[in-house]
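Predict the structure of Urea carboxylase.
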Amino acid sequence: MNKQFFTENRVVYRAVVAAGDPWMYEVKAGQYFRIVDLEGNQAVDTLFYNAQDHSERYSATDTIREQGNIYLTTGSVLQSNLINPMLTIVDDTCGRHDTIGGACSAESNTVRYAIEKRSMHSCRDSFLTALGKCSCNHDKPMTKADLSSNINFFMNVPVSPDGHLDFDDGISAPGRYVEMQAHMDVLVLVSNCPQLNNPCNGYNPTPVEMIIWQ
Ligand SMILES: [Zn+2]
Ligand SMILES: [Zn+2]
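Done. Here is the predicted structure for Urea carboxylase.
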């Protein structure tokens, strides 16, 4: 990977994803994909697919095993379920990203918080909303079976010595970003997490910016 210096004239796509919204887009091989935590303390739940064959997708277990580390940061190679490198994190001003905690859902909201939280917005529902609207997969529509273990960018989920997961206060801050370079054409599916019940978003979901440059 040859890290280039970012300049505005290299930008090919740029969009702000509002608090709680889904987003889906294709990043071409060789391009850089930057996620900016505009206001800080926002969790960005993300899935990656091989744009030509959606059955090849990001694999948390293969990524963790291959790098020998449960946290993601600069140098982490995001592996597919076929053990192909999909993207490499080339820059990271936050320093820690989770890939164990999973995406929030109506079910987890009910179990973790309260039965009345069932109707609240969740990442799983946002993923499905985005898949339903996307024309990129009309040849072979994607369904909930295509939702596998995701990355939670900017989310701080330390694993304690006794093996339990803590959903801790974020360590990100306004303007921090993570940037990766794609090794293949990747379809990116994001839920800008709408979670209001734990500190991953500071109990207040905020917008993020997506920048693709080459
Ligand atoms: Zn999340
Ligand atoms: Zn969520």
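Residues 10-213 form one domain.
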